[in-house]
Write a structure and sequence with these properties.
about 60 residues; about 60% helix
Length: about 60
Amino acid sequence: MIQKTNWQTHEAFQNLHPKKQKMILMLTEALQDKKLTEALPILMQWKQQMAAENISFTPEEMRY
């Protein structure tokens, strides 16, 4: 598990739906220590999982 960082305690993150928080945490854990060439397939898979679970971010949520 990744130790809580500054962005995880930020009000904007804390106000997200728990499913969105979980998806962001899953992505950050999956990308940890990955090279850019390794990250792209992970990002694509994450995007597909978000779509499959009908999770999206509002324009306001994407500002942060």
